[in-house]
Design a protein that fits this description.
With about 270 residues, this protein is an all-alpha fold. The chain contains ten helices and two strands, in the order ααααααααββαα. The longest helix has 27 residues. It is found in: Cell membrane; Membrane.
């Protein structure tokens, strides 16, 4: 990679890491469209571009999550019992997600990604308040919820916050706790999904050198380095700034990224 590409990847990693710390979303929804642009410009196989962008994005979340959750934990905001109850379903779902993604061609995968990013943005803007008596479900319900979060995250390459945060706030978990807990959930999502992307992409023909399954290692290294440094900054900002205002701004960014992926699906 030349220096201009490295600088672009560093900027992307910093933006994704800050977003991950700020909103507990793992940064994947920010990174995937931009990584797709870069891989397209590098003339990666068209049939594998979106798959590789999603896999690389998901792998970076392993590093971003660990960095982000340390900062959130220092504020006492991570609800670890929720993490323990959701993780088994998340691990199972995150393994299945990349397999489902492999069954989709680039057009279908880009459409799925655009739909879920737009859905996430709409959720952020809706501001709906949960019923006062609603609580988190028992273990079977938490396993099912974790499985759904894991499957979708594995398909679209995100840290799951676009589903786990609305789910937790719907069950009356405070927003700062939901953001912090979602950051912690990003690690099992990313670890299981990364191993799955390596496994299911191992025999994919035509991938560029230095690929590990669907993961492009040079991009992973650069993005992860920047995101690890930026994630704690986002986490600290999340505890100091009005989250609802930031969510509105971020929602419009997500709509723009969804629009790009929708365009990508048909070009």
């Amino acid at each position: 990679m030349d220096w201009s590409l490295i600088l672009i990847l560093l900027a992307m990693g910093a933006a994704g890491g800050f977003a991950a710390g700020l909103l507990g979303i793992g940064g994947g929804m920010v990174l995937v469209p931009f990584i797709t642009m870069i891989y397209t410009a590098q003339h990666f196989p068209p049939e594998a571009v979106v798959h590789m962008a999603i896999a690389t994005s998901l792998a970076t979340i392993m590093f971003t999550s660990l960095s982000s959750v340390r900062a959130h934990h220092a504020h006492g905001a991570v609800v670890w019992p929720i993490v323990r109850m959701l993780t088994p379903g998340i691990v199972a779902g995150s393994w299945v997600g990349p397999w489902l993604g492999k069954q989709l061609n680039t057009t279908a995968l880009a459409l799925v990604f655009a739909a879920f990013v737009a859905f996430s943005a709409t959720q952020m803007l809706s501001g709906k308040k949960p019923a006062g008596a609603r609580e988190l479900p028992q273990a079977p319900g938490m396993f099912a919820a974790g499985g759904a979060i894991g499957v979708v995250s594995g398909v679209v390459g995100a840290g799951g916050g676009f589903m786990s945060i609305p789910f937790m706030t719907w069950c009356n978990v405070k927003i700062h706790q939901a953001v912090a807990t979602s950051a912690a959930l990003g690690f099992p999502i990313a670890l299981s999904g990364t191993l799955s992307n390596i496994w299911f992409g191992w025999d994919q023909p035509g991938l560029p050198p230095y690929s590990l399954g669907y993961i492009y290692l040079p991009a992973l290294a650069v993005i992860a380095a920047a995101s690890v440094l930026a994630a704690p900054l986002g986490a600290r900002a999340a505890h100091r700034m009005p989250v609802q205002t930031l969510k509105r701004i971020f929602a419009f960014i997500l709509y723009a990224l969804a629009g790009y992926m929708l365009w990508k699906a048909f070009h």
